[in-house]
Amino acid sequence: MGHGRVSLREERRPRAQAVARDQALSASPEVDVRVVLFTVAGGQLRVALPRDGDDVRLPRGTLLPNQALDSEARRIVRDTIGFEEQYAEQLYTLSLQEPSGWVLIISYLGLITDSSDGASSRSDLWYPVDRLPKVVAIDRMVIEYALLRLRAKLGYTTIAFHLLRPTFTLSELQATYQAILGRPLDKRNFRRRVVAAGFLEATGDQHREGSHRPALLYRFRAAHDRETYLTPAWSTDA
Amino acid sequence: MGHGRVSLREERRPRAQAVARDQALSASPEVDVRVVLFTVAGGQLRVALPRDGDDVRLPRGTLLPNQALDSEARRIVRDTIGFEEQYAEQLYTLSLQEPSGWVLIISYLGLITDSSDGASSRSDLWYPVDRLPKVVAIDRMVIEYALLRLRAKLGYTTIAFHLLRPTFTLSELQATYQAILGRPLDKRNFRRRVVAAGFLEATGDQHREGSHRPALLYRFRAAHDRETYLTPAWSTDA
What we know:
Chain A has helices spanning 14-25, 69-81, 137-154, 170-181, 187-197; strands spanning 30-41, 44-48, 51-52, 55-56, 60-62, 87-98, 101-111, 126-128, 200-207, 215-220.
């Protein structure tokens, strides 16, 4: 478990300041839901950081008593990109003392497939993870934590599925893995390993691009057990 | 993500009732930390359920504004069993509407090794997971969720390490896996798989019990990357 308290002042929390007077007297926190939403577009892993005044910040919302947690995370995604995420899991809950009062930050990881119109390359929303703009310290930590989890899960899961279209070539799969890991992978080793892992199946179709030799199309095997890698949501949380 | 709201009334929440009047008017929840603490003793996976009046309940605590989340989880473990857990990770945060008001439940998974004095067999604290006593619905869900995560992690991690002593025979390792999974494993397949997984190393020592042929002692390789399976804590949360 972590050690050492770090002061993480948020630069601007207009809503929190409004309730700061009550918070200071209360033994109850404000509950802040934040979503780290990833996509792979233009060969890069990107994270959604919508503009908020002069800053860019993680998509977020304040949880109210009668709101379900997972639903609120989905709503935040919808408000950010205009449609539902493909995959979301709860990441971690942090308890922080801010100047404005006590805040619980409940973070989510969300994954979406780049749309065919290339909307995920929009440079005013999607930032490459290796060239992040300035964000508050806690947002940067949440992003780094989400990235750590995503990369770790790549090793033993089919989570990359949620960043790809339903069928893909091995080259597209490799490009997605490389974008997530941030480093090139040896083509022969990569193909040997993903075939050996047994989570791919050939569709029988081919993809032809330009004058290249047509490439076989694959899909992830639906039978691969999601429970081994998901952080499943609970049925109490509608 | 989950669907369908389920009403989960807690039968007794004395402290919560005391603050219910404020809660009802407030947009801030009470924050409840609960720890699912597992051990393997007497060949069974057991969970700690301390007595609380007429009930048994998950070890818990109410988080206060100036308390760090992970520290509070550790304190709950210490108060329950008298010493620190070997391993703890945050599991999940639930938002619930109780009759007493809004409650956030932040659950942790904790693992300890059975002590040499057999304290983990104490039947007034440690209950086999396949013969749980009556607990409130939300505690049962949290336990089932923790069990699901623990079993899933067994497939791709060395998490079982935290339920074993530093060195162990392959028979002891298999017994621990069987206790966690709740089913017998084929001895030859099990040995082949754990050796192939590459996370064991022979200590060079042997363990002799009675008139049996001495068994080789193993340890988990320290080099095995914890980041691939831990839900790491954050350094902000002291």
